[in-house]
């Protein structure tokens, strides 16, 4: 694997699933790693910044650490991976869950952009991890779908507002990915989810990580919504 020296990955929630697969992919390419999460990643070379995006005032708490970690960095790829999923339909939506969904999935990326952008040079990128629910909806997931639609809007605004800076953005929208969270639904549920896509299988986290890496290196995708879902079978 060729090393891309002088580049840094800043990722939220890099400790497991898609996040950790992304960390490993960028590490293989020679990126420095800065992980912002409640739990550290099992990688001695990574810079760990402990943060809970649901807590108020986290920006002030991590700002100095983040600025120090990015001092002298070359190109930066910022990956907004952390997410909170609150089930529930519109008629019985949990207001605290909706607020947490918006705070973690939308407000935190917007705040983190503001912290990292001053350190970003031409050729840097901001990649949002959305969902298939960034462009559609399913029953019983009102808060999550609402927040992921908002992520799509934030990404498109990022593309417009950073025009001329040489910084590009995209939103990668994974389908049913074989992570710890999905496996908690159990075997029969996983088989059903796999049957809903044309390839009749779940997505490996490494496949999404590769898509994120590709988007980070491809300015032509600026403002793009990338469906990474193996192709849903239409009813």
UniProtKB/TrEMBL annotation:
Keywords assigned by UniProt, alphabetized: Oxidoreductase
Record carries keyword Hydrolase: no
Pfam families the UniProt entry points to: adh_short
Record keyword Phosphoprotein present: no
InterPro entries: NAD(P)-bd_dom_sf, Sc_DH/Rdtase_CS, SDR_DHRS6-like, SDR_fam
Taxonomic superkingdom: Bacteria
Molecular-function annotations in GO: oxidoreductase activity
The family this protein is said to belong to: Belongs to the short-chain dehydrogenases/reductases (SDR) family.
Protein name: NADP-dependent 3-hydroxy acid dehydrogenase YdfG
UniProt source species: Parasphingopyxis lamellibrachiae
Lineage: Bacteria, Pseudomonadati, Pseudomonadota, Alphaproteobacteria, Sphingomonadales
